[in-house]
Structures are given as structure tokens and as C-alpha cells.
Write a structure and sequence with these properties.
The chain is an alpha+beta fold. The chain has seven helices and four strands. It has two domains: 68 residues; 97 residues, Nuclear Transport Factor 2, Chain: A (Roll).
């Protein structure tokens, strides 16, 4: 309940920032943007709010007013292969129902119970093996680094959000079918 209230407050802040940036959108477009914001993971929502609050121009989000037009950071030009390899390794390991909690922060390790690992494995298993992995963006989020990957698998495409703490241990991970 408390986390839901905190998320609601962040969404209200996003609405205020959009209004403050004078993005005059028709009602239907505002609802589409709001719908996209409500589906974002909390860490990505926070990163988006930081971008919006920075005063940097939001690339014509008002002009297109579609959910895919939300401002996203540009792809990372130089790739550090360690996070890419880690993302692929975590996908494969979790897909097989295994986890190395030593690679996770204490909070994240505690959150990944055996039951949750089994649930994640059941979700990832149908996608099959990873064919390609692309690093789409890298964002600093409250001292951590959030990586956004697109994994093309044998049976579909998966988005992986990997948050690494300052000690390069996994602070959070999320998989979403695209």
C-alpha cells in the first residue's frame, strides 16, 4: 500500500512536470502518456522524471502524443561489455531457475526467494536461447546505473532492465516481453 502511494505521488509529479514544461496536449494524448507512465518500472519512472526535471528539451513528445514517443535516452555509443555479459548471464541463469545471490546487493538477494526465482524461470523459459543482445541505454539513478537491454531470443523479444549498484552488484532486475 505504501509503495503504491509513493508511486502515485511520483506519477502526480510527472503530471506537474509535463504541465510546467508547457506540453499542451489534448486530453486523449495526456491519458496515453499517463498510461505509459503507470506501466514503467519505478526505477525507469524515476529516471524519466530526472530527465524531465533537468530542463532538457523533450523531443517533440507533444507532437506525436503516442506511447512510443516518450523521451528515452539515446543509445550508448561505447559499450562496456561487462554489463552486456552480465545481462546475458542473468537471463540464462534465471531462465534455468538458478541464481547466484553473491552477485546481488543484500536487499535484492533477499527479495529473490526460491519461489520468485522459480516464477521468473517459468516466465523466461518459453523465450528460448538468446540470439542477440543490444544495450539500448544507460542511466544514472540515485547512485546506481540502470541498463536497458533488448534481448532477441529464439521465440520472442525480451526487455531486460538491470540496475547495478555502486559496487557493481545487481540492485534490481526486471524482464518484460516486448
Amino acid at each position: 500500500m505504501r509503495q503504491g502511494l509513493r508511486r502515485l505521488r511520483w506519477l502526480e509529479l510527472a503530471d506537474e512536470l509535463v504541465a510546467a514544461r508547457e506540453l499542451l496536449l489534448p486530453r486523449s494524448a495526456r491519458l496515453a502518456v499517463r498510461a505509459c507512465l503507470t506501466r514503467l518500472p519505478m526505477s525507469l519512472l524515476l529516471a524519466l522524471l530526472i530527465l524531465m526535471a533537468s530542463g532538457q528539451p523533450v523531443a517533440d513528445a507533444a507532437a506525436t502524443a503516442t506511447p512510443s514517443a516518450l523521451p528515452m535516452p539515446a543509445p550508448v555509443p561505447s559499450i562496456n561489455h561487462q554489463p552486456v555479459a552480465l545481462a546475458a548471464d542473468q537471463f540464462n541463469t534465471l531462465q534455468h531457475g538458478e541464481i547466484d545471490r553473491d552477485q546481488y546487493t543484500p536487499t535484492a538477494a533477499a527479495a529473490f526467494t526460491d519461489a520468485l526465482v522459480a516464477q521468473v524461470a517459468a516466465y523466461l523459459r518459453p523465450f528460448g536461447s538468446v540470439k542477440t543482445i543490444r544495450l539500448d541505454s544507460k542511466l544514472p539513478v540515485q547512485g546506481d546505473t540502470l541498463y536497458h537491454f533488448t534481448l532477441t531470443c529464439a521465440n520472442g523479444v525480451v526487455i531486460e532492465l538491470l540496475e547495478l549498484g555502486q559496487d557493481d552488484r545487481i540492485a534490481g532486475i526486471r524482464f518484460m516481453a516486448q
